[in-house]
Write a structure and sequence with these properties.
2 copies of one chain form a homodimer. With 106 residues, the first copy, chain A, is of the alpha+beta class. Helices cover 68% and strands 13% of the residues of chain A. Chain A binds a DNA duplex (30 and 30 nucleotides) through α5.
Chain lengths: 106, 106
Amino acid sequence: MDNAISKIQGAITRNSELFEEVADLFKIFGDSSRLKILVALTQSDMCVSEISEFLSITQSAVSHQLRILKTSNLVKTRRVGKNIYYSLTDDHVKTIIDCGMEHVTE
Amino acid sequence: MDNAISKIQGAITRNSELFEEVADLFKIFGDSSRLKILVALTQSDMCVSEISEFLSITQSAVSHQLRILKTSNLVKTRRVGKNIYYSLTDDHVKTIIDCGMEHVTE
DNA sequence: CCCATATATGAGCAATTGTTCATATATTCA
DNA sequence: TGAATATATGAACAATTGCTCATATATGGG
């Protein structure tokens, strides 16, 4: 009696694209540099050089990661003089991170 | 006045290992095969061949993914005759997935 | 306008990842 | 016990990833 199972299969196959999107979202949170950037941004907007400094990685590396975050609409930018400040687009980000934190910290 | 920033930096640097753990958790959800397996398991326990069938990937590939899920304690197993049934260890998994789904579906 | 500073971008590379194929292990049934 | 079935495992490989280096772009100050 795999009727129940085949219903599940149906639901998942039918929404395959959705799950791929969700997986892609999680993938973004799945790198510690990006995660730390996002965590930092939940506390305060920051510019590239600030992030680069506290993560101890190259400005270039930070820029690359920020581009990924921006492309996926998790962060937005505003220019202030020579600096470009990054901030979260919404607070889903914080919710998701908290969700993961809760699991890890039991 | 980067006092605020340096506090954030401190908090993140101090908890660096925690964030790496959290990132590793998200990484697991960041593959669509694994995600779909987890989603399926929120609905019903399933054995390897059932999963393999509905995901349309090799039994071997499923086993490999299940091993990852088991190693990270997201799923547990029980043997029933020739089959090994996989189930979620707790419902944090569902919570996390729902979190991500909510963001994607706006 | 030119120079210093801030950020972005592209190429290249090592490391990691997800899959498949072949094979090993384990359990049931005749 | 031996064949059939279910699952696990290891090697190999292509694809992806995250970083660095070099360089491009853009802004503000003198």
